[in-house]
Structure formats: structure tokens, C-alpha cells
Design goal:
Layout lengths: L7 H29 L16 H12 L8 H28 L12 H18 L1 H13 L8 H12 L1 H4 L3 H25 L1 H4 L3 H31 L3 E2 L38 E2 L5 H12 L8 H25 L1
Helix pairs in contact: 1-2, 1-3, 1-12, 3-4, 3-5, 4-8, 8-10, 10-11, 10-12
Length: 332
């Protein structure tokens, strides 16, 4: 019977993740918009359009419509169906294996923090790397909003594949895996720790799940926001094919005179040094470069852009997730 139940953490995790995503997605959209604005290196997003989460929520609703707050919801749901399912299923499966081998619990029955965090880190990193393409689609659609050329899931996927190749779908996979590992390493052990120590006061009830998940969300928001800012900016940038200006009217081949332009929906404006080069250009070459340039051009506080919506979203997201997860466990 134990083997039959092994699949349940995966299903519970997926269902609970999708439920939480629907309930908090508009907050995630405001977070993404805040994180990509103010990039002095990229003139397309240099303007500070939003003063904060509430201002972003209001302006997006007025200027683009309420539906724009849900741009990217379907790749987000698809992401949770894969990422959430694999992450939580793997985490609780690894904990079960660690318990059976005597690694997790000490003689007093207390969980080993480092073993617990290790299980969470592995689960978060692996699941996020697998689900990275859905994350890229979500970010691109959130940034573009409603009524743009890549507003649809299929069209957005096709645009990335045609102009950036398969590698474009795994853009930002490094910081994505790092962020997921950090969140999981903080969030899941903290939740389990709080839940265990609140058991005498509240029992295994909704009040316990609510408080434990809220505390867990604060720690994960503080630890993960800088990585999330870097991840969002890397995912949003496209490879820009610049016109070669030496011979605009020239013809074929790959030599001088070849004019390759970005797709209509590409809004990236390259720096002057890139114009006329004819080469692929990216604003950030990787996670470290993105972090350095962000701090250099916008200050250290830029790494915490979107912190408020991140925490505001993580709180309800975790509350909805863990309450749903716990109720599913009790039902079956």
C-alpha cells in the first residue's frame, strides 16, 4: 500500500500549485513589470513606469485592461503542472527515502535541518530546470501584456523558437534553478519546522497551515528576490539581429549587406556600439554580468525590485498551496 501512495505527493503538489497560481497571478504580473523597468542599459525598459505594486496594478488595469494582468497565465499553469508536481513530489519522496535510511530523524524524532534543506534544494533545482521553457513564455507574455504580437501562447512559443532557437526556451535556466533551489531550501524546511512546533497549539488544522506558510514565505522572499530580478531580466532579453549599415542594399549570403531585423514584437533597443556590427547582441551575457550591470547602473536596491509583490504573492500563494495540499492529504 505504501508503494501505491508514492504517486500522491506528485499529484497533490501539482493540483495545489495550479490552484495557488490562479489565485495570485495578477500580483506576479506586477512583480515582473517592476523587475524589468529602470534598466539603463536597455532603453526599451529604461523608463520607470510604475511607482510600486499598487500603481502597477492600477495602470495595467486602466491602460491594458484587467485581462492584461492574466497575460501568461496558461504557461504559468503549465509550469505549475510540471514544476509544482515534480518539486513537491520529489521533495516528500526524498524525505521518505532519507527517513527510511536514518538520515533525516535523530533519536528524539527531530528532523535534521541540513538533510531537509538538501532534499528541498535538489527538488527545487531539478524541477525548475525541467520547467524553464514555460517560465520564459510566462515572463515574455507578462511583459508584453494584452494585444501584442506574442500575446498567444502558441505564437509566443513559435516566435522564440524561430528567432532564438531551442536555447531561447532555456534562457535564464541558471538563475531559475538557483532561485528555485533557494526558495525550496528556505520555504519547505521552514514550513515543516513551524508546522511541527505549532502542532501542540493548533493541531494539524488550517490555522497551523496558514501561519506556517506565511512565515515560510517571508524567508523565501528575502532570499530569492535578487536572483528573481536577474532571472526575469535574462528571460526577457532577446538576441537582436542588427542591420549591417555598410551596404544596406546588398544582397544574399552572410557577408556585408545582409539585413536581418528583429521580429515586430521585439522591443529591445541596442546600444550604439552594436549598430552596424551585424552580430548577435545581448545586453547581459549571464547571471553574474546581469547582477554587476544592474548594481552598477541602478544601485544595489535594484536587486530588490518587486520585493513587495513577491512577498505579497508568496504569502497567499503558500497559504493557498499548503492548505490545499494538506486538505488533499486528509481526503485520501
Amino acid at each position: 500500500m505504501g508503494e501505491i501512495r508514492d504517486w500522491r505527493p506528485f499529484v497533490y503538489g501539482g493540483v495545489a500549485s495550479i490552484t495557488a497560481e490562479f489565485g495570485t497571478f495578477p500580483i506576479d504580473t506586477t512583480k515582473t513589470r517592476l523587475q524589468i523597468q529602470g534598466q539603463k542599459i536597455d532603453q526599451s525598459f529604461a523608463e520607470l513606469r510604475y511607482r510600486g505594486m499598487t500603481d502597477a496594478f492600477i495602470k495595467i488595469s486602466k491602460q491594458e485592461g484587467i485581462n492584461a494582468l492574466y497575460s501568461g497565465i496558461w504557461p504559468a499553469v503549465l509550469r505549475q503542472a510540471t514544476y509544482g508536481t515534480i518539486k513537491f513530489g520529489t521533495y516528500y519522496t526524498l524525505k521518505k527515502v532519507a527517513t527510511e535510511r536514518g538520515w533525516l530523524l535523530d533519536k528524539a524524532g527531530n528532523e535534521n535541518l541540513w538533510c531537509n534543506a538538501g532534499c528541498a534544494t535538489v527538488a527545487g533545482a531539478v524541477s525548475s530546470a525541467i520547467a524553464n521553457p514555460t517560465d520564459v513564455l510566462k515572463v515574455r507574455m507578462q511583459v508584453s501584456g494584452k494585444g501584442t504580437n506574442n500575446a498567444g501562447l502558441v505564437r509566443c512559443f513559435k516566435e522564440i523558437y524561430v528567432h532564438e532557437g531551442v536555447r531561447g526556451l532555456w534562457r535564464g535556466v541558471g538563475p531559475t534553478a538557483q532561485r528555485a533551489a533557494v526558495i525550496a531550501a528556505v520555504e519547505l524546511p521552514v514550513y515543516d519546522f513551524c508546522k511541527l512546533h505549532l502542532m501542540e497549539t493548533f493541531g494539524d488544522q488550517v490555522a497551523n497551515h496558514f501561519i506556517s506558510s506565511f512565515i515560510a514565505s517571508l524567508g523565501s522572499a528575502v532570499a530569492s528576490t535578487p536572483i528573481d530580478v536577474i532571472r526575469t531580466r535574462l528571460m526577457n532579453q532577446r538576441r537582436v539581429h542588427q542591420l549591417q549599415l555598410h551596404n544596406p542594399g546588398g544582397g544574399g549570403g552572410g557577408g556585408v549587406g545582409t539585413a536581418t531585423v528583429p521580429p515586430p514584437s521585439t522591443s529591445v533597443t541596442p546600444p550604439p556600439s552594436a549598430v552596424g556590427s551585424g552580430h548577435h547582441h545581448k545586453f547581459y551575457t549571464g547571471s553574474l554580468d546581469c547582477a554587476i550591470q544592474t548594481v552598477r547602473n541602478e544601485g544595489f536596491r535594484a536587486l530588490y525590485k518587486g520585493f513587495v509583490p513577491t512577498w505579497v504573492r508568496m504569502g497567499p500563494w503558500n497559504i493557498i498551496f499548503f492548505i490545499t495540499y494538506e486538505q488533499l492529504k486528509q481526503m485520501y
